[in-house]
Amino acid sequence: MKTMKNWLLTGLLFMMVSTVFSQGKITGTITDGSNSLPGANAVVKGSSDAGSSDFDGKFSITTSVASGEVVVSYLGYDSKTIKFSVSNGGTVNLGAIVLTSNSNQLDEIVVKSTVVDIAKDRKTPVAVSTIKASEIQAKLGTQEFPEVLRNTPSVYATKGGGGYGDSRINIRGFDQKNIAVMVNGMPINDMEGGTVYWSNWAGLSDVTSAMQVQRGLGSSKLAVSSVGGTINIVTKSSDIKQGGSFSSGFGNANYLKLQGSYNTGKLDNGLSASVLLSQTMGDGYINGTEFEGTNYFVALGYATKDNKHDFQFTVTGAPQWHNQRSTVSTIETYQKYGSIDNPNTRYNADAGYLNGEKYNIRKNYYHKPVASINWDYKINETTKLSSVLYASWGRGAGASATGGIGGLSYNNQAFLLPNGMVDYNRIQAWNSGQGKVNFNGADQTRTQVGGVFQNSSATGRSGSAPNYTYNTTSGISQTSSINSHDWYGAVINLNKKLSNTLTLDFGVDARTYKGYHFTVVNDLLGGGEFFDNSVADLKPDGRHLTTTYDSRVQWNPFENKDYEKIAFNSTGNVRWYGAFTQLEYSKDNLTAFVQGAISQQGYQREDDFLYKTSDPLSSTDYKNILGGNVKGGANYNINEKNNVYVNAGYYSKQPFFNSVYPNNKSTVNPNVTNEKITGFEAGYGFRSRFFNATVNVYNTTWNDRYLKGNALPDSPGVVGNTTYTEYLGLNEVHSGIEFEANSNITDKLKVNAMFSYGIWEYKGNATVNAYFQADNTPVPGFTGVPVYMDKVKVGDAAQMTASLGASYEVLPRVTVDANYNYNDNLYAGLSPINFASPDNKGALELPNYGIMDAGFSYKMLVGKDKDKSMNFRLNVNNVLDKIYIAESRTNFFADDFVNGKNGPTYASAGKTYDGIATGNQVYFGFGRTWNFTLRYDF
Q1: Which stretch, 42-56, 210-224, 484-498, has highest mean pLDDT?
Q2: pTM more than 0.70
Q3: SS3 call for 401
Q4: Which one, 96, 330, 499, 508, has the greatest CB density within 10 A?
């Protein structure tokens, strides 16, 4: 018996050893024929042995199966089965495995060009999240483009005022002025102020192949403003599979979208083309925010037969107009037009009626076509030249109100209907001398100037409280602040493989920008003329103007209109010359890089209104400022599942245009200095067939931040609204931890999760200077005033975010999905002037909130060969109709006095909502919204 046990143990040990030493490895690269497919699954049929492709499409499977079949699958593509045979301890390379798209959508990710800095999984040492076209197409619905990113770590996206394209995004506590946004390698942040107006890019979601968020300094080789992160958007190319689609979508608030696209595929002669057209319109969720937008996209391509040259010409634009909600109302106002417990979150203090129709004096209209030529030249097997030449011509404006009636603005209570809407008819009646308005203690009637009812920028009240002086001659007009531009640029990169382990990149980044800024009259609202006395050469007589201009979108960006300009007329010129280089080391499991970039920005201001043409300040010299960055990092793949990375960088960031020339004057700011950003980051990644996860920690220091503040409050001898403030020595530290994971629980059930926790605070105290707007001279007694900001929380973004989502394929091609997003440690936006006392209360913390989104998808195969499809998609956002405060512009606490420095507090007076003082000016988030889309792919 003992002998038999020994034999059994020996046999079992032999089988175990044989199994261990009979393992082999299967490798390969998964592509669509042109580009890699990251995240594709490869599994040995009939076993649990599997692998997932990296960003280069490469995968590796360790298996004990000597021969069999590998099944390769990827979302949106037909699966493929490949036979294999591998010897004990050996490796078999299946080569390039080409999958065929089963969704003729323009889904391919264009990563041919080396000017597009896409981070690669388990290789590029940065914190990154990638959103594919299929997810954008399915889940965006009626949401704004930035909102599709809110389920990625440390991202906070809100709808702002709620107008079409008026959303905003923060990454790691930094606003979008300090987030680099790149489209196909082109920087699109405004060159004067760093802003990104998403309404100008409203059609971008229709043509995006992939969007990648690189948090922190990122992997871009350019000296771009990636303080908080970089959003890389890669659009569709022309050389993709032949086919097209038609779609129609509708939703709440009369939302309607129609879209059609077609692409030829790559023809035998190397030519290719893709086109897309769409139209979107609706009433808007917020009252009085009607909108209409068009999107066009044309891509033309040519590749030589030897594949050495590849050209892509792209032009896209999204002309649109939308009414806005620019006035930030108090919580008390939302309650007034709703109820105490159920405030009217859709209320818009800018919306009203005129002549029996809806009317909103606040309106945005813009058209920003962008054209680019990408040329990729494969010089030889080790050298590649990539170039992009681009141009943008922005034309448009934001309309608002100018003037006043007895010191009253257009949405003062005196002009509101019982439902809170603005009675623009009453303003029109006053302007035309046919109505009365009560101010200065009595009903007043408008008087003429020179026999005409004269509108101007005058508000009808001058001086400071309590000694105001009133007049009855002023009125209210609708005017537009034109912000147009011509922008030309080029990025050229030479990529040279020095050896099997070293690759060198170096290139240039050149841009030139001319911004046109002036004001025109849109509507006198019953007035007879507009008097403007802002042109220095024409003072004191001024000009009496009667010409008005409609607020329609200018489709032709090359049309030169001869405007009669008012208020101001200046041109901002920016020249950017940059150079960059990167050296990358890659061998076995280690990848490391070091990169550096330098840029010179030159700023020039021209102004023939504020200054006489004989004044040298009417056209300044260029103020040239040098900046740049240096970054480095390394990634080490411990094994096929585990990797770690670190990176660090320093960025000397040039100030924005209005920091160099503050308050729209042509004198250079004597305190102008570069902002200094230092970042450190470390992370760990885990990849397997069933579960992927990434966790990282970061620390970013932002020193010498420039901030222009609001006007001073009225005080003896100082009229507050004639001043502005400037903060010096403002420093911030942003630290945190981020976690992101997804899991294929089964072939049908997929789960994703995210968590981020930040500690974003001001470091040290700062000082404030106050200046008079008229001439930038200091306000006596307001120079070098300390503001106590140390340890105050950075506002305007949630410092703790989390989300959990899942999708389940109930039946073949029938999927339901849901996602819950939670936000906490959200603080109000700050004005440092509120921190003039060392015993200030800090930043106001807003209530936490969570919202749930859900969706339903069905794909029905049609056609003789079932190679076409009808796709149905239903999205419901904020399913539970949660009421929540998304942002606050003010910082009043419940225990603050309602008026002045004594009396009842907000809490004692019962003036709180969810613990927040109702005197705070806030934007609530949207309630429940929905949309349904039907798409035919052929």
Answers
A1: 484-498
A2: yes
A3: strand
A4: 330
Q: What is d(CA 543, CA 556) in angstroms, rounded to the nearest whole number?
A: 30
Euclidean distance between CA atoms 406 and 193, whole angstroms: 35
Gap between the Cα atoms of 293 and 277, Å rounded: 11
Q: Are strands 723-744 and 691-709 parallel, antiparallel or unpaired?
A: antiparallel
Residue 659 CA to residue 793 CA, distance in Å, equals 24
Of 275, 270, 211, the residue nearest 243 (C-alpha): 275
Residues 249, 104: Cα–Cα separation, whole Å: 19
User: What residues form DSSP beta bridges with 650?
Assistant: 630, 678
For residue 380, what are the contacts with CB-CB under 8 A and spacing of at least 6?
Answer: none
Angle at 848 between CA 846 and CA 851, to 5 degrees: 130
For residue 12, the tally of other CB atoms under 10 A from its CB is: 10
Name the token pair of 521.
């009259």
- Whole-angstrom distance, CA of residue 571 vs CA of residue 560: 15
User: For residues 138 and 711, what is the distance between their CA atoms, to the nearest angstrom?
Assistant: 45
Nearest residue to 192 via CA among 658, 505, 890:
658
At 374-433, the pLDDT tens digits run: 999 999 999 999 999 999 999 999 999 999 999 999 999 999 999 999 999 999 999 999
Q: For residues 339 and 332, what is the distance between their CA atoms, to the nearest angstrom?
A: 9
What is the number of other CB atoms lying within 10 angstroms of the CB of residue 63? Answer: 22
**Closest-CA residue to 805 (of 756, 849, 854, 860):** 854
Inter-residue contact 573 to 513 (CB < 8 Å):
yes
Question: Rounded to whole angstroms, how far apart are CA atoms 658 and 661?
Answer: 5
Distance of alpha carbon 279 from alpha carbon 207, whole angstroms:
14
Residue 712, pLDDT score: 80
Stretch (H or E) spanning 5: helix 2-21
Instruction: State the number of CA atoms in the 13 A half-sphere of 238 facing the CB.
Output: 23
Q: Where are the alpha helices (DSSP H) in 450-529?
A: none
Place of tokens 């997932």: 52
Q: What is the DSSP letter of 413?
A: G
Which residue do the tokens 């940059």 mark? 578
Strand partners, 884: none
> Which amino acid, 198?
W
Cα(447)–Cα(321) distance, rounded to whole angstroms? 35
Q: Is 276 exposed, middle or buried (0-12, 13-18, 19+ CB in 10 A)?
A: buried
Phi-psi region of 318 (alpha: psi -120 to 50; beta: other; left: phi over 0): beta
Classified as helix, coil or strand, 259 is strand
The token pair at 145 is 């483009």
* Letter string b/e over residues 283-303, b meaning 16 or more CB atoms within 10 A of that residue's CB: bbbbbbbbbbbbbbbbbbbbb
Tell me if residue 764 falls in helix, strand or coil.
coil
Strand duo 454-455 + 529-532: pairing: parallel
DSSP line for 126-178: SEEEEEEHHHHHHH-TTS-GGGGGTTSTTEEEE-TT-STT--EEEETTB-GGG
The residue with tokens 């004044």 is: 615
Counting every residue, how long is the chain?
Answer: 938
Average pLDDT score, the chain: 91
Report which of 670, 665, 530, 544 is spatially closest to residue 611, judged by C-alpha positions. 665
**CA neighbor of 76 nearest in space, from 142, 141, 32:** 32
Q: Which two tokens stand for residue 653?
A: 């960031």
**292-307 tens-digit pLDDT:** 999 999 999 999 999 8
**What gap in Å lies between CA 385 and CA 494, rounded to an integer?**
5
